[in-house]
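Posted in: Protein Modeling Q&A

I'm a second-year student putting together a small comparison for a lab meeting, and my supervisor asked me to include a predicted structure for SUF system NifU family Fe-S cluster assembly protein. I've never done this before, so apologies if this is the wrong subforum. The sequence is pasted below exactly as I got it from our records. If anyone can share the structure token output, I'd also love a short note on what stands out.
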Amino acid sequence: MSFNNLDQLYRQVIMDHYKNPRNKGQLEDGTLTVDMNNPTCGDRIHLTLNVEDGKVSAAKFDGEGCSISMASASMMTQAVKGKDIETALKLSQVFSDMMQGNDYPDDLDLGDIEALQGVSKFPARIKCATLAWKAMEKGLSEDGK
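Accepted answer (user: helix_wrangler)
Welcome! Here is the predicted structure, written out as tokens:
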């Protein structure tokens, strides 16, 4: 597949998550709630997580923001559901590294999240893509203390 076709596919994946977000809403009985915003662009997120027996059993988000921010939140909630806290935090670190333009392990299947790797070419948009991930890190780190 050529670079242009791959780039177009990634854009389609991002727009699909933006227009049809997965896990949008709030958990009524969320064990963790985190509110964060990006003051430079106005993106904001309200993240709720259920953590049971050291695993993220459910994750939902609400908020407002650009397509990258909201698509990333959708992808993140899908990625961490069912994962133990350590794995979810490791995934967040891998995502952060990817946003800095660094490689990630070949054996790690990021699924739709790979569509966001092009954001690393636009430094002003990295904060948009990482907002939901930072919220998840904050919530899980505070829960683990």
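A couple of things worth pointing out for your meeting: Residues 3-143 form a domain with the Sufe protein. Chain: A fold (CATH 3.90.1010.10). The chain has one domain: 3-143.
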